[in-house]
Design brief:
The chain is built from twelve helices and no strands. It is mainly α. The longest helix is centred in the middle third of the chain and has 29 residues.
């Protein structure tokens, strides 16, 4: 059985890649694999799976601490953690033996893995509860998922969506959805939700900007087109009311 590709291989960079290289590689891969660019349903499903792997790899490698932990787990070294050049020969021969007991980074990696599993279980449970209609209870499970692993954009997206449904807090919904968009900037569904939250909160101009941004990537995005049309209709109705109110006032009517 072939070994799973490393996060570096998924992004197409080396373990010594700089932060800039990693970011550029992510943007390139994200553009190439975005599900909205698929020609058919099969290709869309394939791209969605690959896109999820690319996003996960980027979310780990862009964070210095998590990248070092990941490097340790796969036995790799990066430019920021590799030993200084020029030390070879006698210096290399007198390297201290690796202790047999587990080092602190190894324990840290294990703890990270355990918390990641707890987060996945919490998220899965939250999705099940959400389907049953208990939105407020689902919110608690999504919050628990993020507390244990804040590297998954989908956790923030689902929490923002659930909070919007439960009408708990528009401010928190915006913050969580913004975080999801920052972590996965090429996911149009995240941007669409952020636009809908702004729209419900009265930020129509910001919502319009987001819908237009989505259409730059996918001119046929049905939901973005629909939301944008609704905004245009609302704007047109407001202008008509304003016009007739002004006309009525000029004709001597009372406000």
């Amino acid at each position: 059985m072939a070994a799973e590709p490393t996060y570096y291989e998924i992004l197409g960079v080396t373990p010594n890649a700089s932060e800039k290289d990693i970011k550029e590689a992510y943007y390139k891969r994200a553009r190439d694999l975005h599900p909205d660019k698929a020609r058919n349903e099969d290709e869309k499903k394939k791209n969605e799976a690959l896109f999820a792997d690319v996003s996960k790899a980027y979310n780990v490698l862009k964070d210095k601490t998590r990248r070092e932990e990941y490097n340790h787990s796969i036995g790799a070294s990066s430019a920021s953690t590799s030993a200084p050049k020029g030390k070879s020969g006698a210096a290399a021969q007198h390297k201290k033996p690796v202790p047999s007991k587990k080092t602190e980074p190894a324990r840290s990696t294990e703890r990270t893995g355990e918390r990641s599993q707890i987060a996945k279980k919490s998220f899965t449970k939250g999705m099940q509860i959400l389907k049953s209609g208990d939105v407020e209870r689902a919110v608690k499970y999504f919050e628990a998922a993020i507390q244990n692993d804040d590297s998954e954009a989908v956790y923030f997206y689902r929490l923002a969506h659930a909070m919007l449904q439960s009408k708990k807090s528009f401010t928190k919904s915006v913050d969580y959805c913004k975080r999801a968009v920052e972590m996965d900037p090429y996911n149009m569904e995240y941007k669409l939700l952020l636009g809908e939250i702004y729209e419900r909160a009265g930020g129509l101009s910001r919502a319009k900007e987001l819908y237009e941004e989505i259409l730059k990537w996918d001119a046929t995005h049905e939901k973005a087109l629909s939301r944008l049309k609704m905004l245009s209709d609302k704007s047109g109705t407001k202008e008509k009311k304003s016009f007739f109110a002004g006309l009525f006032k000029k004709l001597g009517g009372k406000k």
